[in-house]
Amino acid sequence: MKKFYTIICSIILASSAGAQDCSELFISEYVEGPGNNNAIEIYNPTGSTIDLSEYSINRYGNGVSTSPDSWPLSGSIASGQAIAIGNGQVDSVWVSTYWSLPVDPVFLAACDYSCSGIYPTPFYFNGDDAITLEKINGDIVDIFGKVGEDPGNAWTDDVTAGFTDANGGTWWTKRQTLVRKSSVKKGVTQNPILFNPTAEYDSLPDATYSGMGSHLCDCAVSSLNYKKGLDFSIYPNPMIQGESVQIISSKNNYEIRLFDMTGNLISSSAEINFSLLSSGFYLIELKHRDGSFNQKKLIVQ
């Protein structure tokens, strides 16, 4: 069981001295939107593809410092790639005394992967929960918020209140989309004395999903490992269940890999029978002989 201890020192920002620039994954975007429209984006600033099965996303809710809600990741993330993992609740769910509403289809379509819509997963966070990216061996890779602190409704820009909302500062971690500044090259690996969300994040309006799945970073990454701009299209998309789709690419000799939205590989072949798919959201990856690949979402209605 992990415990977080705060060490009193003269600095007020988190220390990440244990990590070298551009050497490890980090959280690149935080979405806390209307209802359950919550997502965490992860970016790979390194020069290599990384196995995500070695990592998990964790939520330390309402000031707790132990026993977080945890979601193990799967699949892989290429050099220079950003992936957005979001809440996957697609139906209304009765939770004790109220109905938990499904996420917005526009939000879900913006996610690269989604967790199951079963409470409590880490993606039921709100503005007062700390989020961590951790390795399965317990190493902390990145921290959003301050583990063990309940800031009230949200962390804010109010220096006088230690960035909590005790004095009514402007909320930064509730009903906001926060994007990591491009100058940030590594995660926060030690629990901060104070969490100042304005130090490393830029704030976008509530319910902004357009940037999910891409990130600008000053780390230099190999364009050969991940070419997001590779041209291919899926038609029709959305498709009707039982019908077929056509994939049109600027290159030949590619392999098609089909994933569900939790990152599980369904099929890998030069040809896939899409008419057998159930309704839902899928990820199609085309991998070319030169080692480059691209991914796009497919919606089956």
Map the helices and strands.
Elements: E1 26-32, E2 38-43, E3 50-51, E4 55-60, E5 69-72, E6 76-77, E7 82-86, E8 93-95, E9 98-100, H1 105-110, E10 113-114, E11 130-135, E12 140-144, E13 176-180, E14 201-204, E15 232-235, E16 246-249, E17 254-260, E18 265-269, E19 280-288, E20 293-300
Parallel strand pairs: 7-10
Antiparallel strand pairs: 1-2, 1-13, 2-7, 3-6, 4-5, 4-11, 8-9, 11-12, 13-14, 15-16, 17-18, 17-19, 19-20
CA radius of gyration is 20 Å
Counting helices, strands and paired strands, the structural category is: mainly beta
Tally of individual helices: 1
Strands in their spatial order, largest beta sheet = 10-7-2-1-13-14
Major sheet: size, sense and barrel closure?
A: 6 strands, mixed
The low-confidence parts are: 5-17, 223-229
Helix content: under 10%
Overall pLDDT: 85
By oligomeric state, this entry counts as single chain
CATH topology call of the largest domain? Immunoglobulin-like
List descriptors.
301 residues, mainly beta, Immunoglobulin-like, 2 domains, six-stranded mixed β-sheet, four-stranded antiparallel β-sheet, 20 strands, 2% helix
Mind explaining what this structure looks like?
A hairpin with a 5-residue loop joins strand 1 (26-32) and strand 2. The chain is mainly β and 301 residues long. Residues 5-17 and 223-229 have low confidence and may be disordered. The protein folds into two domains: 26-204, Immunoglobulin-like (Sandwich), CATH 2.60.40; 232-300. The N and C termini lie far apart (43 Å). Strands 10-7-2-1-13-14 form a six-stranded mixed sheet. A four-stranded antiparallel sheet has the order 5-4-11-12, with no helix packed on it. The protein contains one helix and 20 strands.
